Amino acid sequence: PRYMRRVVRAFREGRVNNVAFTQRYGDVGAAVYAALTDREARSTTLAATAASSGYGMVLDPYVNVLRVLRALEYTPRRGREVVLYQLFAKIGVHVLHSPTVFGFYLPEHTPPGALEAAGLVAPAAEIATPPNLIGLLNGLHSLIDNGLTNCASGFGTNILNGGCGNAARNADGDLATLDALATADATPSAERIVDELALLLTANRLGAGGLRQHVIDEFTAVYDATGDATRATKHAAKLIVSAPDFYTTTTNALTDTVRLLPPPLPSQGRPFKALIVVYMAGGWDSYNALVPHTCRTGVNLVNEYTSVRGVAALPRAQLLRIADGDDAQPCTHFGMHAAMPRLRDLYNAGDATWVANVGALVEPMNLTEYSKRLKQRPPSLFSHNVMTRSAVNVHAQEKSAEGILARIAKALTEQHAQPYKVSLTSVSGVTRSLAGLEYDIVSAGNVRTLNQDALLTQIEVMTNKTGASPFADVFAHELVTSIKSSERLSTLIEGTQLELPEFGSASGFAQQLETTAKMIKALRSDGFERAVFYTQRGGFDSHNTVDLQPTFSDIDHIGEFADELKAQGVWDDVTIVGMSEFGRTLKSNGQGTDHGWGGQAFLAGGAINGGRVLGKYPDKLTDDGAEMLTKGRTIPTTPWEAMWKGVAQWFGVTDAQLPTVLPNIAKFPTASLFDQGRLYAAKKK
After folding, report:
1. CA 661 to chain centre
2. Which backbone phi and psi does 419 adopt, to 5 degrees?
3. For the whole model, what pTM was predicted?
4. 125's torsion region: left (phi>0), alpha (psi -120 to 50) or beta?
5. What digits encode the pLDDT tens for the residues 78-130?
6. How distant, in Å, are the alpha carbons of 188, 228, 475 from that of 224?
7. Using alpha carbons only, how large is the chain's radius of gyration in Å?
8. What are all long-range contacts of 65-70, with beta carbons under 8 Å and residues at least 24 apart?
């Protein structure tokens, strides 16, 4: 609080103690000066006591790139400005490329391990995924070896580089400090050079972390073998930017404990099944995905839909008409969005089902109970980040709950008498749905691996022992597991050919599905019994548009995905769960729609008893509807637990494990939940 007050006062007064700036309100320069010169910002005690106090942070990867450029005195050639090219695709962050209004990572993110156990957060660690970490390492290694260029996965452009045959000669600029250090003495001093690099790149934390002598020895070995001081200096710099000490702000004293990675579980030869989440981030307008078309006598939903939705309403003639196979909804027929003909085909074939008015609930709740707060509400209704958390942890009231996919996987591994051989993979970065277990993260398309194999061994050596700092230790674990998992997945997927023509070039989301299809084929051949995948398509936060064609048509690539899995002979062993954090308001804001609550989800797969609309579609969409809040928000009548019950059972979770997998399940009537027999019974023809 004292530190914050000092910075705020400087911003307001335009001065810091006796140092005068503009002396007017809103002085950013004074605020920055106050922040950087405060005793807390400059204290070595905070870094030294990180292990016990929890001080410190994981640094932003973009900041790390700039740190290297500045600390090692990047000097452009030919007067060119610094151009960092496509960094978002390489390291997950770049100026003006924020994927959402919430930035690149969330403030409450906590990676598993020592930080989670200590109750600490590390927001930037959310984008420290294997593809991003390896992209950052490859780019920094290229920058040190060659200067700023696009060669060897570098961060530069391909303008004026003249090809990569001699990347260093054609770079846009160089790190001047490296040559200066290497040529300062007739006989280079390994200690002096390494200490200078450690000071510039880690604020002298490398020595305290126990890695200093290793880098000195490596410098000496390279120099003795080659007689090239510049090459040895660059090797030392690459080791330092590969060490956990570079990526965090804490001093990391190494312990004597060897870092152990869990051994792979053996296969028991049980049949393979795959569970795939298709997450539509932003809140998809599912009341335009499943629309009233032909309703029962006395039910006026068709007219109410047109009237209430206003500019967001879809013309009835454009809808893809489907029948409710259960004949249990207020309408006998619904209409699907015209951009989803392949999902419609799956529904009509009995391979997909809709779940109506589903959403986050702690316990059943009607309008009176909501209004008078007679029942516990889910936290932070209508907000993206908290309702995303509630949707993917399916334990709405628990902020720190593990993800639903992680709990299902634990039921089949840690909590199972004969553990399944399970693969957990996100094809879309870090996800809370898998929080609680370690999982692989792959980029859609080719698996990114470390360019310089020799450095892989060095990183393993530098991360072999655990560290006292929870920040550096967690990052070290992420670093080594990222590299190992990427190498493993690259070997697993390399050469895997789909049965049908590839379809991933259509979009980024299609590429995720294609990568998932390749992994399913590879994992089955490798003896895995269960595979869990998380995929995500963003762009559904439609405040300013009613044109849903681009996002809805992208989700419809599920059709090509299903074709491929059928060709592999595995479609009957796959379940797809299509979901979003919330539905949107039925009423338009004039340009689009706003955040709602209840909405529609879907399930697809060869074993699904489809062609039905489960749950309870609202029988009135006007303000006097039984589930209606302001702006046309609907209170869910079906909890997420309803559909996850049957999915979990199908995947192998026992009834005895369900209260652990779905902690709120006992709060809901059994009749409102969909068990395996209801979701996966014999198909209707």
Report:
1. 22
2. -55, 140
3. 0.88
4. alpha
5. 888 899 999 999 999 999 888 877 789 988 888 888 888 888 889 999 999 99
6. 11, 8, 32
7. 28
8. 65/91, 65/136, 65/139, 65/140, 65/143, 65/155, 67/201, 68/140, 68/143, 68/144, 68/175, 68/201, 68/241, 69/143, 69/175
